[in-house]
């Protein structure tokens, strides 16, 4: 049997080993060719009397990341072409046939009459884990590198190759729904406890264990194909079933606000599929999968959260002429919350860290923060005590700037004050070797002006982290006017080393993410002053797709920091650069009431020592008038929240601060949680159409003010019908 993506061999006991090892790829992916070879293997194993069964494993470090999403992304475009050429009915039939091919291939394997076992080592995700679920037995490597799961929901899809039906028959329905909705990758022991795999083994033994199961007479029939099979949670229409589905529907609506069609499709597929024979249930799942595959939400999320994100992670804008950086020692100036967290992720990536603060006590406190963070990982089973000891050993807290000598990279993370930043920059510069790259973790101050304190402004760059550093995936890499390619290359290499996603941004007050998200917070403040109920502001923002409301977000950032940003903006740009009503609101809260946000337990919310936070009851004193909530247009509030961010993103593109739509979209979702189902700020505009978006902005501008005024680039695009992804060439900024 001739295969290109697999190796097939049979041992003396008649047990076949199918090793998935795609040539020229670092990871195995499901492609049309791979699907064909799986079908071919199932037929061959079934027809050869000498073969007792087959073990499927991987020849690579990981089992497989699942389907090639670029293939799935192009499927909807191919459907539209077929519809235009052959008519809607013929195109739909062809599309459904293709969308269900992988599911049919797995079912062929599952029902071929010979036992199949999966020997899983490394990541086994998405369609690859659906392949494992179609096997009759699953052995998983019990090590720290192995994970299994169905993460399709995170890119606007759902498991459409039997995943919803097999998982819902292997575990209680409520647990299955939770797994499918979350899309998390599971550790081996968790997968075993959830009945998703049968056996744990050392990685070197997984193939032998799988073969042993076949040799011992492994059964070539899935549980759901047995005549006496019973669903784990009983029938859907039963007292037990009716305890599940009303609650599941309520949770779905609470968590998604109906913004994610794939989540709704999961509910439908499981609910309908559990009432049907298995093969018919697979057909129902395939129909829902075909529908979701053509949805604009899936197209936008696949493009931004998979394709674009992968391109940025691989360094699409890294200067090709600069050799890779070797970063062994990193100096971090400032051991406060941000500096300590940066030290934590840096040491976690294997680099030695010199953590500097004004005295030894403050520096030690920073290391204690790192200790707390890694200890939390140990308690959750995500790290070992050995990992903890190794990480902490790489962090040296000190007040001595001479310890920075020999550092490959410096990251300044002190308070957001020019004078303080200039002082530590100069003190560090006095002991650094010529050519040392110096980065500032500033959130708003222009890099070009901060670089004046460093003797080599060409080696000065911005590396802006988002809080909490250990959780947030985005980092803005900011170019000053004199920053050269060596500094950019090292910054991108560093960000990649700590497993964050970088976007390259040119110098500007607030850069990209903060310009957009501060508009979002500002809009919440304005709504409060207009008389909208605070709870409605927060709830409608989440309904629009934002992860938290603007008032809660402001509390997390700190009301005092928001006020300092306003003061700095007014000082640098003048009175007209800020909203006086917003300034009065923040100044009254901060100086009049001492409400700084979560940090001191009181901001827009109260944070009791015990129990959940709640909105401060006295917020209504800031509302001269109170609007009747029943007369407020909820749809318009949602539009305001999203449009005020998207129009700022368009301004950023027009000004050349961001030059690649991929960076704007990825940055908006990872950096400030812009409604992921839209694909990001610019995809939101492209999806609506520039003409429609400009009309929306003009309507909002007339009613609410100049902050909604569409920039010239949008007006031009509205006339020509262009999109951002069509207008901008998505090529590396620095040619090879």
Question: Reading side by side through the largest sheet, how are the strands ordered?
Answer: 11-10-9-12-13-14-15-16
Kindly estimate the percentage of residues that lie in beta strands according to DSSP. 5-15%
Shape annotation: globular
Q: Considering the protein shown, what is the CATH homologous superfamily of the largest domain?
A: 2-enoyl-CoA Hydratase, Chain A, domain 1
Count, helices: 30
Distance from N terminus to C terminus (CA atoms, Å) equals 42 Å
Radius of gyration: 28 Å
Give me the secondary-structure category. Answer: alpha/beta
Mean pLDDT: 94
The CATH architecture of the largest domain is: Alpha-Beta Complex
What is the third-level CATH name, the topology of the largest domain? 2-enoyl-CoA Hydratase, Chain A, domain 1
CATH class of the largest domain: Alpha Beta
- Uncertain runs are none
- Helix percent reads 40-55%
How many structural units, i.e. domains? 3
Main sheet properties: 8 strands, mixed
In short:
49% of the residues lie in helices and 11% in strands. It has 736 residues and is an alpha/beta fold.
Question: How would you describe this protein?
Answer:
This protein has 3 domains: 289 residues, 2-enoyl-CoA Hydratase, Chain A, domain 1; 177 residues, Rossmann fold (3-Layer(aba) Sandwich); 214 residues, N-(1-d-carboxylethyl)-l-norvaline Dehydrogenase, domain 2, CATH 1.10.1040. The protein starts with 5 loop residues before the first strand and ends in a 9-residue tail after the last helix. The strands form 4 sheets. It has an 8-stranded mixed beta sheet with strand order 11-10-9-12-13-14-15-16, with helices on both faces. With 736 residues, it is an alpha/beta fold. Helix content is 49%, strand content 11%. It is built from 30 helices and 18 strands. Helix 14 links the parallel strand 9 and strand 10.
